[in-house]
Amino acid sequence: MNVNIDPSWKSHLQPEFEKPYFKQLAQFVKQEYQQQTCFPKGKDIFAAFDHCPFHDTKVVIIGQDPYHGPNQANGLCFSVKDDIPHPPSLINIFKEIKVDVGQPYPKSGNLERWAQQGVLLLNATLTVRAHQAGSHQKKGWEEFTDAVIKTVSSQQEGVIFLLWGGFAKKKSVLVDKTKHHILTSGHPSPLSANRGLWFGNQHFSKTNALLSKMGKRLISW
Predict the structure, then answer these.
(1) pLDDT tens digit string along 20-43?
(2) Which compartments is it annotated to reside in (predicted)?
(3) How far apart (Å, rounded) are the C-alpha atoms in residues 71 and 81?
């Protein structure tokens, strides 16, 4: 695996790349991509970092696994490539945005436009085998992405962490709550949303209210 990551992140994360766990992880990923169909494409594994430079990061959204269907995953959590049907969680995200901030439901489910405004769309696991959810979990990715969250927490100030669902909420222990903001809610998946745990969380307007208070540019969701 070629660690082709935006230079602004590389300077902060280089120590992780040198650690034994990451070298084992890189070996595992390289082998998997040679022997299996895996997502996202190799060039997109670190896309979340490439589209959102370290110093521009204002918001962090944490997902679990990349989408494991053909042509879906593009390296950003909850995001799909242009012209790909929107998965159920993404549909619910867009529905909440429409009600919360009055933004019309978008044609494209590609969230690169968010990343370019300073939203780090970070999956805890950055790769997956086709049609096998969770197949690359517990191989070292979580250790790496936890280090990313800790780095943002220690090196930045006033970042807004949006933690959706039980898995993401557990990451709150990695964040210094004295200098960052954490908003939590249920997951946007139908299972959680249909139980009333997602809709109405107003995370998008609340995020912009916090950004406004800090004098930062608002996100156009």
Answers:
(1) 999 999 999 999 999 999 999 999
(2) Cytoplasm
(3) 7
C-alpha distances in angstroms, 75 versus 9, 11, 34, 112? 16, 20, 19, 10
Beta strands, E only, 16-97: 38-39, 59-63
State both tokens at 116.
Answer: 């370019």
Tokens describing residue 35: 């022997």
CATH second-level architecture of 7-214?
A: 3-Layer(aba) Sandwich (3.40)
Active-site hit among 6, 44, 56, 65: 65
Q: Outline where 40-139 has alpha helix (H).
A: 47-50, 88-101, 112-115
User: Which residue type does 54 have?
Assistant: F
Tokens of 19: 């650690």
Tens digits of residue pLDDT in 154-199: 999 999 999 999 999 999 999 999 999 999 999 999 999 989 999 9
Q: How far is CA 156 from CA 58, 152, 179, in A?
A: 9, 5, 9
Question: Which two three-digit tokens encode residue 146?
Answer: 């936890």
Provide φ and ψ at 145, rounded to 5°: -70, -30
pTM of the predicted protein model:
0.96
